[in-house]
Amino acid sequence: MITLTIRTDKPEAELALFDGYTKQAEIVWQAHRELAETIHIKIKELLDGQHKTLQDIEAIVAFQGPGSFTGLRIGLSVANALSDGLGVPIVTTQGDAWQQVGIERLQHGERDPLAIPEYGAPVRITQQKH
Q: For residue range 43-56, what is the model confidence (pLDDT) as tens digits?
């Protein structure tokens, strides 16, 4: 199973491509405030480097958090859009072994209906000024 993994909870973003449990390729870059502008480019670079296309992706594992509100929001939005658009399963995980745990969940037939972020603290939303 070709699986795309996505982690965007900190300034250094990570993408990887797995075939089963074996990591085929990985891209790590300082995305920081340019994550929204660079994540799609980096996904294409990752796939191109393995002579793959989006249609080759069979599943997605996304790091759920905790972490940066904006980074998680962007990364999980991309993960959810790819999962829905490609019609492939998605799972979210946490912790140091997040990729392995996610792939294991997929191998056991587990699926999340949607990738929901875990920020690690309540979200503070500023009230609109009148």
A: 999 999 999 999 99
Q: What pLDDT digit, counting tens, does each position of 55-71 carry?
A: 999 999 999 999 888 99
Kindly list the structural domains of the chain, giving each domain's residue range(s) and its CATH number in brackets, ordered by start: 2-107 (3.30.420.40)
Q: What is the pLDDT of residue 121?
A: 75
Helix (H) or strand (E) holding 35: helix 35-49
CA atoms within 13 A on the CB side of 19: 6
Supply angle C-alpha 109, 115, 120, rounded to 5.
120
Q: 3-state secondary structure string, 62-105?
A: EECCCCCHHHHHHHHHHHHHHHHHHCCCEEEECCCCHHHHHHHH
Report the C-alpha gap between 21 and 11 in whole angstroms.
26
Do the beta carbons of residue 116 and residue 76 sit within 8 Å? yes
State the Cα–Cα distance between residues 68 and 53, nearest whole angstrom. Answer: 29
Prediction pTM value: 0.90
Could you tell me if 57 and 3 are in contact, meaning their C-beta atoms sit under 8 angstroms apart?
Answer: yes
